[in-house]
Design brief:
Number of helices of chain A: 10
Strand order of the largest sheet of chain B: 1-2-3-6
Number of strands of chain B: 8
Helix content of chain A: 55-70%
Oligomer: heterodimer
Number of domains of chain A: 2
Radius of gyration of chain A: 18 Å
Strand content of chain B: 15-25%
Shape of chain B: globular
Number of domains of chain B: 2
Chain lengths: 199, 241
């Protein structure tokens, strides 16, 4: 991934770090190096928080998800295996799973949800500014997303950002059961090929 | 599920869009399929590119709290083979579970929030008997749903004479109680089939599952009972009895 990161960062952009540098920071974190972990946090926090926020929607809950996820990253950093994917992908996989778990179990409990909303008024969170400051890389991703068919993109976004299962996505998009998973997979393959990542 | 079917789940798996049963199946498949491992790795890299489009600054407080908290947490030693993900329940979560158990008198009250499958420590390590039941050609499934997203599926293989219970969002048993599993015998009625370990989401039932006409779950005092002492929270009837 390092070859597709911009060399110079715009204002407010995360400090770009090459994949192997992140892997190195993970390795150091696994040895208990707190400053390496802080550096890893600074290099990833916006994307991690942005992902959690997009999935769980409530900023307070998104921060909880982030905190849990980063603690898990700290605790299990030695388990990261560079042969099985990039450090970024490992981190986001963990965060995404936590965020999805959060929304699915919240959905499973209306009572807790109701209590939650009584206690925590949702904080107005202005994401527009962030979008304006979006990176060069974000523009590339958006362009690559244009290569997806509308239904592939819809299915992928409902799954990834919505936290819905492919069966739920199929119902939401009036697709026959079993087709949403194909759309998701095809969409990901197009995105992967357009961006030249992974296999 | 045939092999070609299961390959097709790679994309949904990469974005956590499988339900718990599919996820368990695919995880087991993944352990033995190098092709799917490579594909999942690539699709995950692609999926996570989407986070470029949603970057948002968290509060400064998060960084402070986190850097303070890691001082109290010891990084785990390396492990071989390395799981891609390792989400073991944290202590805080377990405390939440205990609180939930205290708050919830019985199943179906819709109170407890817990997603047992978030514990991926079982990844690739499910007991082989359980795996075999789930994969058995004659496996039959009966699913029960309760309020609050609680779902339990009983999978029984007559040829293997075994049954497995898979649960989702099952709240912990009330304080001092335990979930007991039962196999229903046509003559003897409910026969004890084991206790559900605290926090478990997958349990292999003991006893002769092939003969059973159904199964059930009750809440019993710690240690379990010889016959049910409370109304079942769930009952399953095998079609192929």
């Amino acid at each position: 991934m390092d070859q597709i990161r911009p060399l110079a960062s715009g204002p407010a952009e995360e400090e770009p770090l090459a994949g192997d540098q992140l892997g190195q920071l993970l390795k150091l974190s696994g040895r208990g190096d707190e400053s390496a972990f802080a550096e890893l946090y600074d290099a990833t926090a916006k994307r991690v928080f942005g992902l959690a926020l997009r999935v769980v929607r409530d900023p307070a809950q998104a921060e909880e998800v982030c905190q849990e996820a980063y603690l898990e990253i700290w605790r299990t950093a030695t388990r990261y295996d560079e042969d099985r994917g990039s450090a970024l992908s490992w981190i986001f996989t963990l965060v995404h799973r936590k965020a999805v778990d959060r929304v699915r179990s919240a959905e499973a409990s209306t009572r807790r949800d109701t209590t939650y909303h009584h206690k925590n008024q949702p904080v107005e969170h202005d994401t527009t500014a962030e979008t304006v400051q979006a990176s060069f890389e974000a523009r590339r991703v958006r362009t690559a997303l244009d290569a997806l068919t509308a239904v592939q993109r819809e299915a992928l976004e409902l799954a990834y950002f919505g936290g819905y299962t492919h069966t739920e996505v199929a119902t939401m998009l009036d697709l026959p059961v079993g087709t949403a998973k194909t759309r998701i997979r095809d969409g990901l393959i197009r995105l992967r090929d357009a961006m030249g990542v992974g296999a | 599920m045939t092999t070609s079917d299961i390959h097709a789940l790679s994309g949904a798996y990469a974005v956590d869009a499988l339900d718990d049963i599919e996820r368990a199946q695919f995880t087991r498949h993944l352990a033995q399929c190098a092709e799917c491992q490579a594909e999942v790795a690539g699709l995950r890299e692609a999926a996570h590119l989407l986070t470029e489009t949603t970057a948002t600054e968290p509060s400064a407080g998060l960084r402070e709290r986190l850097l303070a908290e890691i001082k109290t947490v010891r990084p785990l030693p390396p492990e071989a083979p390395t799981p891609v993900e390792s989400h073991r329940p944290e202590r805080r979560r377990l405390r939440g579970l205990v609180a939930a158990a205290a708050a919830v008198a019985a199943l179906g009250a819709g109170g407890a929030v817990w997603h047992p499958w978030s514990d991926d420590s079982s990844q690739g390590q499910l007991p082989s008997a359980t795996e075999q039941v789930l994969d058995a050609p004659d496996a039959e499934r009966v699913t029960q749903r309760l309020d609050g997203g609680v779902e339990a599926t009983l999978v029984r293989s007559k040829s293997m004479n075994q049954a497995v219970l898979l649960t989702t969002n099952m709240p912990a048993a009330p304080s001092g109680k335990v979930y007991e599993l039962w196999l229903e015998d046509a003559d003897k009625g409910m026969v004890p089939a084991g206790l559900m370990p605290d926090g478990a989401s997958t349990v292999l039932l003991s006893g002769d599952a092939a003969e059973a006409i159904g199964a059930g779950i009750t809440v019993e005092p710690q240690g379990g009972s010889d016959t049910p002492t409370s109304d079942p929270v769930m009952l399953f009837t095998f079609e192929n009895a």
